[in-house]
Amino acid sequence: MALAAAGDTWGIDGTTFLLGYGVLAVGVFIASVRARRALADPGQKHVVPDLTGRHNDVAYLNGGADLAVCSALARMRVQGLVAAHKGTITATGRPGPDSDELERAIAFATASPTPRARLTWLRPVRTALDGIDRRLVAEGLLLSPEQRHRIRLVGLWMTAVAGFGLLRLLAGIADARPVGFLVVALLIVAVVAAVQLLQAPRRTRTGDRVLATMREQLDRYAPHNRPDWALYGAQAAALGVGLFGAQALWASDPAMADALALQRLSGSGSSGSGDSSWSGGDSGCGSSSGCGG
User: Fold this and answer.
1) Residue 275 gets which letter from DSSP?
2) pLDDT in tens, 100-133
3) pTM of the prediction?
4) Which residues lie closer than 8 Å to 268 by C-beta, 6 or more apart?
5) Strand, coil or helix: what is 112?
6) Where are the domains of the chain?
7) End-to-end Cα separation, the chain, in angstroms
8) In the chain, which ranges are continuous DSSP H helix?
9) pLDDT value, residue 169
10) How far apart are CA 3 and CA 8, in angstroms?
């Protein structure tokens, strides 16, 4: 072990401090990831619901409000209830008794031509979407705003580590000691802290498992299989979009996707965070962050 030289900041040489600081940062990071995951899995006793018949709920769970609207429009288009041209939607029929609140709201909102991009902001549609959100939170599949706030607060742990490093950095500068490596370490810790403070998963871990199971069971609706919606029907079209994003429409009915003015992105992978407009997988139609660090 190297002995501290006279004049070492805080009586600890730079190499020893960097090693200890790195161990501290890694330890706190691992603890924070575990804490965030635990908070994303509240452990409440919920009966896991069967979402097979709730296509718009599946879409909301996967990609939020935009994907839920996309799912509803896909089903309504196959049923001949809406017409679309260059992203403008017009109702052409009345929803049947098997339609849910979101589809009825969309039919009402598009009695006159309405841009698809505006649908999620119209009061009837927004009310229906809020109802889906509350239902999924109550069933333990989505996290409430309060739960997500608690998850973000875990980022204060790494913020404290960054603050400690900043104190050492300022002290080192005052002592005219080299601080280049500490600056790099401090930047990494600060970025991790910022990400944890700003981001939180939207789904619970149970919600992630429900989606993964449904994708496995309904793989025949995946874009790579190019399912025939005329054969499978309107419900399958909505589930395909809900589970695999708008890429399901581009793969199976590009004319419909083009009429709805959906952005075409390559791939249909799944992402746990961020917002990606009208893509495939978890990032479809505005993403719902999955659980995890």
Assistant:
1) -
2) 999 999 999 999 999 988 999 999 999 999 999 9
3) 0.79
4) 222, 223, 224, 244, 245, 247, 248, 279, 280, 281
5) coil
6) 9-39+147-198, 55-143+201-283
7) 35
8) 14-39, 55-78, 101-109, 123-138, 145-153, 155-174, 180-198, 205-217, 229-232, 234-244, 247-252, 254-259
9) 95
10) 10
